[in-house]
Amino acid sequence: MVPPCEPRYERAEYSAARRVLIACSSRQTVPCRIMRDESSVIKMGAIAIATCVATCGAAERWADSTSPTVERKTCQAPDGVTLVYSVAGTGETALVFVHGGLADRAFYDGQIRAFAGNYRVVALDLAGHGESGANRVKWGLAEFGGDVKAVVDAEKLTRVILFGNSLGGPTAIEAALLVSDRVIGVVGIDTFQSLDYSMTAEEAGQRAAAFRADYSGSVKSMVKMLLHSDVNPALLVDVENRMQKTPPDAAHAMFLSVAGYSPAPSARKLAVPLRAINGDLYQTDVDSVRKVLADFDVVVMKHTGHYPMLERPEEFNRHVADVVKELCSGTKSR
């Protein structure tokens, strides 16, 4: 085991830390309030998005290249933490995107731009991430699920597809159980390689201690293990820089909170399809997942790591369009 003060992981040793990110993931909400309009073009960096989108029951068409008007809004989580989220577009169906551990809603800027022409698109910062508050007392996947519910309630969304990357996958499952009457599907993004797993308190504690001892070094080591070795260096640095903005104390609390959590019990309660758009760094055990929830399917993107929306945005958006079309129609597209 790597000492906490030297968080340099080999790929095999890193599996426990990766599981932390994937797993680590009265309910009253305060009405949201619009803080300001973001009418400028969404920051896209060097990522070019050209995506195929589909409306429910309508033929596929290319998204309008015009940048959508994006609103920055806030609402309150059940425990009073202020949540910040972006919303754009209109449509009966809402696509709600949940980021992974140490990430933020900006990871989905490309999806807001691609799909706002046909859907209501929402991307939120979970508590302790991005612009959302970090003054949470009790951390865990259930609380993150409550964050998503708060945003869904604030926007009065009635027909929702939840997308979650890494930690956001189990978070989306937890949220789906809280808004079960409004969700028509849950889609993981490089997550759900398996469902029947959990972190021990010792494993979670060791990883939390490693990040507390050397936050910057731990983030860099983690990101390298989640992407292919020949990934664009600029993308690697960009992801590292974004993730280092997460408050270390919030990250430490998040890592500790996943001890003992397994997504399997909650997944078994889902009454909607479970889908995944995964990279190929880690094998998806389809049979194992289907033993937990039979209605599961996955698309595996070749030579893609943990952040397919950043690594291969055009291909990723095509898969998003396909799965949205399937879930809206109730007929498998693959």
Mean pLDDT: 85
Helix content: 25-40%
DSSP helical segment count: 12
Integer count of domains: 1
Derived from helix and strand composition plus strand pairing, the structural class reads alpha/beta
- Judging from the principal axes of the Cα atoms, what is the shape? globular
Poorly predicted spans: 1-20, 22-65
* CATH class annotation: Alpha Beta
What radius of gyration results from the CA coordinates?
18 Å
Beginning-to-end CA distance, first to last residue: 42 Å
- CATH topology label: Rossmann fold
How much strand? 15-25%
Q: What is the β-strand count?
A: 11
The strand line-up of the biggest sheet is 1-4-5-7-6-8-9-10-11
Main β-sheet, in a few words? 9 strands, mixed
Tell me the CATH architecture. 3-Layer(aba) Sandwich
Give a topology summary:
Layout: H1 11-23, E1 33-38, E2 52-54, E3 60-62, E4 70-76, E5 82-88, E6 94-98, H2 109-115, E7 120-124, H3 141-154, E8 160-165, H4 168-178, E9 183-189, H5 201-213, H6 215-225, H7 233-243, H8 248-257, H9 264-268, E10 274-278, H10 286-292, E11 296-300, H11 308-311, H12 313-329
